[in-house]
Amino acid sequence: MQLIPVILSGGVGSRLWPVSREAHPKPFMTLPDGQNLIQKTFLRAAGLENVAEILTVTNRELLFKTEDEYRAINDVGLPQGYILEPFGRNTAAAVAVAALQLRRLYGTEALMLVLAADHLISKQVAFRNAVAEATQLASNGWLVTFGINPCYPETGFGYIEAAVDGALGNGLKVARFVEKPDLETAQAYIAAGNYYWNAGIFCFQVGSVIEEFKQHAPDVLEAVERTFESSRCSTASGYSCLALDVECFATVPNISIDYALMERSRKVATIPCDIGWSDIGSWSAVSELTPSDECGNRFDGEVVAYGAQNNFVTTENRLAALVGVENLLVVDTPDALLIAHKDHAQDVKHVVTRLKAEGHAAHMLHRTVHRPWGTYTTLEDGDRFKIKRIVVKPKASLSLQLHHHRSEHWIVVSGMAVVVNDEQELMLNTNESTFIRAGHKHRLRNPGVIDLVLIEVQSGEYLGEDDIVRIEDNYGRCDI
Hints:
single chain, globular, 6-stranded antiparallel beta sheet, 3 domains, 480 residues, Jelly Rolls, alpha/beta, Spore Coat Polysaccharide Biosynthesis Protein SpsA, Chain A
């Protein structure tokens, strides 16, 4: 029977700021081994048996970045599908629309395995065994969730209570789901022996989960069906992309799969497992991925410590030094520095809330911003000027665009560029430049086989990114 892993790539991961931001969320965080979480999730899914394709549900602004991350690791050319949300509507909507898409492509008997893009699983063999057990139950109509054997009384996770007399082969019938408990309650759960951490991993038969939506969350299913029928799907060999209709999707209830379905259905089972699962929900969890020194410090980057104990530091671009401090989390990025006590790791999200309320760009963007054609990095931002480093991928092209309030000077550092500047088209080589006046239609293209790198100097009264009028675009972002 065909198995389709469905990767849900949503959410911001605000507790992992300043690395995780809205335009560069948690799944794209690079871990100490060089891979990021979404790549690890893809590879984990690709290693399962009978996989027909991998379907990813994500925000439409993250499509091209996701494709780039998969392309770097998908050596076997596994087919890929995408469902693009214009904005988040929680996990019930994502699961429902994925089920409708898979029913159209594979029929009602296909199995879907729902995975979060930002979790870490270290025990791959145990994971594959748990999936095999889950697919057996799902093939018989059960909605299967993965229950993690709890190691300690964690108060930050939801729990699954298994029915005491509910054995289903290697699985257990679920009695109920319970919210994040206080410490005393969590200790009681551990002592009881039939409670498991809710990992947010699910396995369903496509037809079964749709029928359960009809019975327990018809409002969700009806709104998703309207959205599905109004949405545009493009296909190619080994590739599909369903872009959800904005107006219809806005009518979908914002509710999780747990509340909408799992807590209401009587056909829910769990597979108890020990798969080395972590939701990487805070900098304390991230720190555990780096070995500690004799003083309990964990360092990722160039760090010098004297009289410092039990600290975690990650720094990319500069030397960090710690003297006589304990139990700190230090996260250094080019444009933001986080210093927090380990006991307050969960409170980082409040910083993000404040930045967002104040309209500060640091909640949304890094200094380096990814675009479908490559990246740009803001090197300096002053009064009436801004300097950027632009990298354009081979054969890629920026949109044909104009700016009302700024002029631009482009200097090629490496590679070659084809530039449209109003009615003129010219070729620029290394150390050559051109000037784009405000109001001129212009475009930048890399005709070569290596990255094009250039320096852009902007000048004008207003330098905001919203002063872009796109006339033609290869990535569907036209304004006129």
